[in-house]
Amino acid sequence: MSIIVVFGGTGDLGRKKLIPDIYNLYVDNNLPPECRVFTVGRSIRTQEEYKESVKDSISKYSRFGFDEDAWQGFEKLVSYRQFDFNDIEGYRALEAELSEMERECKNPLGRLFYLATSHEFFSPIVKRLRASGMADSKGAFRRLVVEKPFGRSLESARRLNDEIRGVFAEEDIYRIDHYLGNEMIQNILSLRFSNSILGPVWDRDYIDNIQISILEEAGVEGREEYYESSGVLRDMVQNHILQLMSLVMMEPPASLAPGDIRKEKLEVIRSIRDITPEDIGENVVLGQYGEGLIKGEMAKGYRSEKGILSDSTTETFAALRLFVPNSRWSGVPVYIRTGKRLDRKLLNIAIEFKNPLATYDKDAFAETQPSVLLINILPQESISLQLNMKQPGRLDRLEPFGMSFFKKAELKNKNPETYERLIFDAIKGDSTRYAGWEEIENSWRIVESILDCCKENSDSLHFYSAGSGGPKEAERLIEKDGRRWWGDGNPRK
Asked: Which residues are catalytic?
């Protein structure tokens, strides 16, 4: 028997993702026997009111939908406890309740604590878990899942890590990056290391460049306070994008054990070359959206969003050119772009290969595109490979053609949701899909070096219209190298 305690589970994340996905685990028989789920929040509500809200969330957000028979069993496992996250008496009361359950079971119960609160509560909750005795092992596991952001800077991340490590062992801390729970992203490892045709060409001798794009149509939408103090570099690059980059560029691990995978990911992040003030203009473009048309309707600019300063310099778009100067990747540029209020929703990784000019002359490639492998997550999960073939009737002219694998909708609905998979892993004690501390620490080092350089460059912020493709400077960043963004998630024709 195990216990899941979700702090902040009545917020958007808990309501739309965590509780529905725990329900999915229950329906799929993937929860431990007689598992109990406690949601802790500050809002005052009765157990009946809480369970009605859970039923509504399940109906809207569970991949299984609401099932009355399943609900009859699940509702017995979930309950709500109301107290302020700074109130030690609330923790003590819950600890007494959990201890009584253990006495009744005559066995120590494993406990998974999930911090789904605003970041300023992470440290107070952890301190009170220790002070109340809730984090004491008593012969069973005590694990902590921490949502992002893990710190707001390198200094604050180190401080938070020290506080958490004072209560939980490193192997019991699960720093979540929900992108790592995505099925197609996890396929990066299997694609690379289970297909012998890719291994020999996965290096600087054959790959021309790597691109990672995470583009959003949405704006800040209710997260103004958080975003104004964060910006896209902290929000997206520090965790999601550098994690994706490490998966694409890591050396083959000794095994699929969490420690072996983390070791190789860390080596990539450590090896990323620092950006200096002298070369920032060649490698960094930051932008902020102004007003513009989105689907025929006028959208306001970032500075007009609620609570945002009229002279805010917070970036909502970033394009970067990074390098990993090791023996495998030296000289291969990695182009990154991410932003809000853009003209499309896109999450893809492009591996562009070099053209072999030894057999064909340049004229043969006049109407072709480079060979490219695309790993697409949004708008539709797929893997695409673009190659070149001869034009009909000619041997000296080539043209592109693409091969694509698209995940069928019915297959996708059978796959676990991202948080469902990550919660299941945390219960099992599998940290493969979670980021280790050293990965986070080195990611902060990279992002802070960029932010520090940009502070010294008053012209580093470029404005773009909402509903556009981003600042034109982002196009020039890659075009000056004779390349272009792979922007639609599918091979070009």
From this structure: 240
